Predict the 3D structure of the following.
Amino acid sequence: QVQLVESGGGLVQPGGSLRLSCAASGLTSHFGGIGWFRQAPGKEREGVSSMDLRDGKIYYVDSVKGRFTMSRDNAKNAVILQMNNLKPEDTAVYYCNTFPPTSWGQGTQVTVSS
């Protein structure tokens, strides 16, 4: 059974940085990928970035390209989302999930505000 636990969120000023972590246990070859998602108040959940677990290719939504970097920490069985030059519109609850999806975790709140 896959367990996903997100952490690393917080309050940061515009232009600041945060590093999110998704501790993933129970991943098997059944899962082809893993991604980061976010849901802002009153909006639909959207995909932010994704990683193909077979070839390591990473994809980003246009709004975060050049600012966010997704990586994998094999030693900790985690995927990382390094977020730089944060903007108020990045404010949301951030989640990770697999492809195909499993149950959603609690997420981690990111608030960008001065």
The beta strands are 3-7, 10-12, 18-25, 33-39, 46-52, 58-60, 68-73, 78-83, 92-99, 108-112. The radius of gyration is 13 Å. The chain has a mean pLDDT of 94. The CA atoms of residues 2 and 26 lie 4 Å apart.
